[in-house]
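During the reporting period the student researcher (J.K.) took over the structure-prediction task from the postdoctoral fellow and processed the backlog of single-chain submissions. One of the processed entries is reproduced below for the supervisory committee.
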Amino acid sequence: MRDIQAGILPTPIGPGPALSTNARPAGVRTLRTLVRHRAQLGGPTVTVAVLSAVSSALAAHLGDVPPSLRAEVPMAKPGVRHAHNHFSNVTVGLYPDLDREARAERIAQDLANGRRRAEHPAVQAADRAFAAVPAPLLRWGVSLFDPDARPSQVSGNTVVSSVYRGPGDLRFGDAPVLLTATYAPLSPAMGLTHGVFGIGDVVAISIHAAESAIGDVDEYVARLDAEL
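J.K. obtained the following structure tokens:
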């Protein structure tokens, strides 16, 4: 808090209002994939380009969304890896009320701020403290979670998980791997997730959606396709 008040560390983005995408997933669940070459996406990074497109597409699809529309973005933690899942979620504003260039700048800044906060000694100390909690105590704490309780405030209205899977030299037997995609799972408070997976110059954008979250999934995918 001293570093935040002194302006050394950026203030975190707080929670925002829950939307239909945060309702408990119900109805048909759908998987879709869009494919682009890197040069088609523009933006300072692939992640920023897709987040900006998701912002426009989701705002247009849902209609009256607040300017506080935001996404949870998994980000690799700094330091020595002690587990396979060595990441934390960063809240990123999507800024649907800004033009494309300004929106991309703000999204990139939010990602950079999230990385700076993750590198702060206090955050790393908290991770070490959590790692030292005995497993039975963790299990007891998890047992208190009520998946049926509906939050009014959430850290993200969707999830965008972005992973670069290396150069395009992967093979499946004798066949070259042209693209790769994973479909992030839904949760009790998240009915719409996205994935961004690059291999070589090919980027696959995956969508996993529940009918309760956005209604006509193919209509939303068409909007996202146009924005990309």
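The committee noted the following: Strands lie at 16-17, 29-37, 70-76, 87-93, 153-154, 158-164, 171-172, 175-176, 192-199, 202-210.
J.K. will present the remaining backlog at the next meeting.
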